[in-house]
Amino acid sequence: MSNSAFSTAASTAAGYYDSNDADRFYAEIWGGEDIHIGLYNAVNEPIASASRRTVEALAALIQAPQTDSPKESSCVVDLGSGYGGAARHLCQNPLVKVEAINISAVENTRHRELNRAAGLDRQIQVHDASFEAVPLEDACADVVWSQDAILHSGDRQQVMKEAARLLKPGGVMVMTDPMASDGVPSSSLSAILERIHLSDLGSPERYKDWANNAGLQRDVWDDRTPMLIRHYSRVRDELQRRQDELKLSISPNYLAKMDAGLQHWVEGGNAGRLCWGLMRYRKPEE
Known about the structure:
Largest sheet: 7 strands, mixed
Number of strands: 9
Low-confidence stretches: 65-71
Order of helices and strands: HHHEHEHEEHEEHHEHHHEE
Number of helices: 11
Strand order of the largest sheet: 3-2-1-4-5-9-7
Distance between the termini: 33 Å
Strand content: 15-25%
């Protein structure tokens, strides 16, 4: 899929995540398989284990109806699948298949390699595609899943419409996303927005409204904002601790910009301008 099919914001994100510097940093520092915000049990817990705990917590929100052991296969559409850590976790259940949607060709190549190594390449289909225009049929998904990805869209309302289109009646969307706190103006987030090349962020109420407009109903909002602050602090600590090693494969300019950017996220969180948590939306039964 060509970048011309993406919004400007999505195309910018694709270019960023396809860069060698970003690929090396996220693979080495940000959690390896899981490149999203973690849930920490201790201040200095490894990033990878905290990130995996987020996957487990989001999976627990799915709650298959009527039975803990579904007798039919379940389709999960992962919007912004990264390196596929969540997809492989979900596919530990052989009845699950995942359609992974991601715009970074570099991440998708690594994702497919890791799937083959895990023997899961038949359960997980990786699509080089935008979550603003998912190349799948209507009502194909039991679950739509997304972790810290939709912020990169230039049209988040459209992404929520795509989620609603993809879900079967009675299906659920589970997601996380770094957001502005409700009522916080974009002007107070200029340092963060400039760093990630966005004009604004979503917020809990904005996502709720977008979901309602698309025909989805939010029934869970688990505010875990302290984890956003801790995660960006932990990533920054690791960058600084391993800086000499990282400079062997990542440009010093990238590392300096990442260090400054991470500090902006920590400051924004501490000032109450940012929030993060786990959300669940349901598509009503017909």
